[in-house]
Amino acid sequence: MKALIVEDDADLRRQLKQMLEQKGYTVEETESGREASYLGEEYEYDVAVVDIGLPEVSGLDVIRHWREAGISLPVLILTARGDWQDKVEGLEAGADDYLAKPFHSEELMARLNALVRRASGHASPVLKFGPLELDTSARVVTLNDAEVRLTSYEYRTLEYLMLNAGKTISKAELTEHLYHQDYDRDSNVLEVFVRRLRQKIDPEQTLQPIKTVRGLGYRFALEASA
């Protein structure tokens, strides 16, 4: 998952970035509301964390700008504790959720993960597709109730494909949303990840959950379970 952090407090911004990266997110950050407005328009993110009290261009104005531009990026705003007016204004501006400072890292991650799931049409933290299940909270994958051991990159790849089940995801989109900027984004490396992933989640080659769409990318093809 790819996140945008908009926070002018350098220490908090660094803490947020480290926290999200430890949970498997790729992160871009800025202290500027003006730059945030531009980034949200020009690049795709899975979720954004926006502080309301930004200099020059406020977090509220950033969110309003995105919504007026038709950008449906899920947004979690950070507010001062007890300042209910900021919370109301943020939600009316188009934010999806809010969190008061100071906050617990576990709550922040739970709220961000929930926003990402809801944006993909999933209410439960467990994604179920036939015998294959992925718990986005525990970051555990099971096949026929047996845990499947995946590397961090394999898990990220599978999670993104399952959250976007039925859609054709290009290799460029996968690398942009899953891998850090300093990571080798050679498409051959991605093909290796996908091949290993297929072997682990479909050892008998009966499900064929990840389809290759020739010339376009990959598609998770299983139907979601009720």
Automatic annotation (TrEMBL):
GO molecular function: phosphorelay response regulator activity; transcription cis-regulatory region binding
Keyword hit for NAD: no
Signal sequence coordinates: none
PROSITE patterns hit by this protein: OMPR_PHOB, RESPONSE_REGULATORY
Biological process annotations from GO: regulation of DNA-templated transcription
Domain Response regulatory: from-to ranges: 2-116
Entry keyword set: DNA-binding, Phosphoprotein, Transcription, Transcription regulation, Two-component regulatory system
SUPFAM superfamilies noted in UniProt: CheY-like
UniProt DNA-binding region: 124-222
Residues in OmpR/PhoB-type domain copies: 124-222
Any one GO cellular component localisation term in the record: protein-DNA complex
Protein name per UniProt: Two-component system, OmpR family, response regulator PhoP
Modified residues (4-aspartylphosphate): D51
